[in-house]
Amino acid sequence: MMASLRKISSRPIETFPDPVEFVRRVLGVEPVSYQAEILRALAEHRRVCVRGPHGLGKTALAAWAVLWFATLYPEAKIPTTASAWRQLDHFLWPEIHKWARRADWTKTGRALQLFQLSLRMGEQVEAFAVATDQAELIEGAHASHLLYILDEAKAIPSSIWDAIEGAFASGTGYALAISTPGGRSGRFFEIQRRAPGLEDWWVRHVTLEEALAAGRVSQEWAADRERQWGKDSPVYAQRVLGEFPDESEDGMFSLAWIEAARVTSDKSKT
C-alpha cells in the first residue's frame, strides 16, 4: 500500500533544526509545553526516555519526531519498534500517516512517499517498522544519521536496546523511548531510575498534573480510574500517575509478569 504525496521541485530544501518549529510550521499544530520540551531535548541530548500516564500524547509526539527527522538530514534511517506489533500497526504508523497528510511539505522543499509501515523522502531517507524479535534488523540499520523510536518501551527486550547501542557505534545516533511504566525491571526502568552506565539518557516523567493542565487528560477520567482501581493500586500508579508501582514480594501476580504475558499474547495473534 502506497500513497504518493505531492512532489515538490521548485522550492529549495529547508531544514528545521528546531523540531518545535517544524511541528508548528510544517505540521500546523502547537505542542503542549512538555511535548515541546521533549522534542527539543531530543535535538539537544539525542537519547531521550519519557514515562507518563495514558493520554499524554506520546504517539503523536513519536510521529512528529519521525517526520521532523526525515526532513533534517539528506541521509537518515528511522527504525520504529514497540513492545507489541499492534502498537506499530494500529497506532504509531496510522498516527504518522495522519500527520504526514496534514503537513505542508511546500515549506520543506522535500517530496515524501508514504507506505503502510514505512516512508521514504528522496533516495536516502527511510523510516520503517521493525519487530522486537528482530534485533539483527535494528543493528543492521546503517546511515550517517539514525533515529530509533521505541514506543511502549517498558516491555521492549534488552536485546533490542543492546542492538541500538551497537548501531550507535558509527554515525550520529538519536533515540526516543516513550511509555507508560511497567514493572520495576528491564532497560526502560533502569534508564528511568538513572542506573549506572545509563546516565547518557535524558529522562523525563510527565506527571498527571501536567497532562491535566495541558488538557491531554480529563479530570473526570482520572477520578473515575481512582474509584475503579483505588488510589494505592499498582494499576492506578502505572496508568494514571505514570509511576512505577511498588510490587510486594507476597503479591499473587507481579505487574511485570502481567505485562510480559500481555506482550506474549499480542505476538501470538500476529
In short:
This protein has helices at 19-27, 33-45, 58-72, 85-102, 135-139, 158-167, 187-192, 208-213, 219-229, 234-239, 255-268; strands at residues 2-4, 47-51, 76-82, 112-115, 118-121, 125-129, 145-151, 172-179, 202-205.
Fourth-tier CATH superfamily name: P-loop containing nucleotide triphosphate hydrolases
Corresponding CATH architecture: 3-Layer(aba) Sandwich
Helix/strand/pairing category: alpha/beta
CA-CA gap between termini: 19 Å
Average pLDDT number: 87
Q: Please, how many domains?
A: 1
Question: Mind explaining what this structure looks like?
Answer:
This protein has 270 residues and is of the alpha/beta class. The protein has a single domain (2-268), classed as 3-Layer(aba) Sandwich (Rossmann fold), CATH 3.40.50.300. Helix content is 42%, strand content 17%. The protein is built from eleven helices and nine strands. It has helices at 19-27, 33-45, 58-72, 85-102, 135-139, 158-167, 187-192, 208-213, 219-229, 234-239, 255-268, and strands at residues 2-4, 47-51, 76-82, 112-115, 118-121, 125-129, 145-151, 172-179, 202-205. A nine-stranded mixed β-sheet has the order 1-4-5-6-3-7-8-2-9. A hairpin with a 3-residue loop joins strand 5 (118-121) and strand 6 (125-129). Helix 1 (19-27) packs across helix 3 and helix 3 (58-72) crosses helix 4. The longest helix is centred in the middle third of the chain and has 18 residues, at 85-102.
